[in-house]
């Protein structure tokens, strides 16, 4: 079970508003806020996301193939999270929409992809019925 995910940043205070806006849409806020890192989520709740300056003092870099997936409530929230990300300095990596075919339960993976100001890749997703 994942407790939290940590992403590196070279500008903690500059990138924090991106995550503040995403967290607000998802119904959570900051649960830890220190000079070196900020974590969003709810203590004792689902996995959180933390943004941190690298402990070793080196430059934060983006992991190729690394991505954090944020589970949205529905398609509308997927769209809102994508819009919020772009409005807060993020870049588009894939507009909201269905991905792939329906599974054995008739559900389709519905997602939007974006990057934060440091280049960390995230997505917002939900499973939706084939009827919309």
Brief write-up:
The chain is an alpha/beta fold and 132 residues long. The protein contains 2 helices and 8 strands. Helix content is 20%, strand content 39%.
Could you explain how this protein is built, in words?
The mean pLDDT is 94. The chain has helices spanning 12-25, 75-87; strands at 4-8, 29-33, 37-41, 48-52, 67-71, 91-99, 107-115, 121-129. The protein has a four-stranded mixed beta sheet, with helices on one face. Helix content is 20%, strand content 39%. The protein is built from two helices and eight strands. It is globular, with a radius of gyration of 15 Å. A hairpin with a 6-residue loop joins strand 3 and strand 4. Helix 1 (12-25) packs antiparallel against helix 2 (75-87). The longest helix is centred in the first third of the chain and has 14 residues, at 12-25. It has a single domain (4-55, 66-129), classed as 2,3-Dihydroxybiphenyl 1,2-Dioxygenase, domain 1 (Roll). By secondary structure, the protein is an alpha/beta fold.
Q: What is the structural class?
A: alpha/beta
Q: Compute the number of strand runs.
A: 8
**What assembly state would you assign to the polypeptide chains in this entry?**
single chain
First and last CA, distance: 30 Å
Q: Beta-strand percentage?
A: 35-45%
């Amino acid at each position: 079970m994942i407790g939290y995910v940590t992403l590196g940043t070279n500008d903690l205070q500059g990138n924090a508003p991106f995550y503040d806006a995403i967290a607000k849409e998802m119904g959570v806020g900051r649960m830890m806020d220190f000079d070196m890192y900020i974590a969003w989520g709810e203590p004792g709740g689902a996995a959180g996301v933390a943004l941190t300056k690298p402990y070793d003092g080196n430059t934060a870099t983006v992991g190729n193939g690394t991505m954090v997936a944020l589970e949205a409530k529905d398609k509308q929230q997927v769209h809102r999270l994508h819009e919020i990300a772009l409005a807060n300095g993020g870049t588009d990596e894939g507009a909201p929409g269905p991905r792939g075919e329906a599974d054995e339960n008739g559900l389709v993976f519905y997602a939007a992809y974006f990057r934060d100001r440091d280049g960390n890749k995230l997505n917002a997703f939900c499973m939706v019925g084939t009827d919309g």
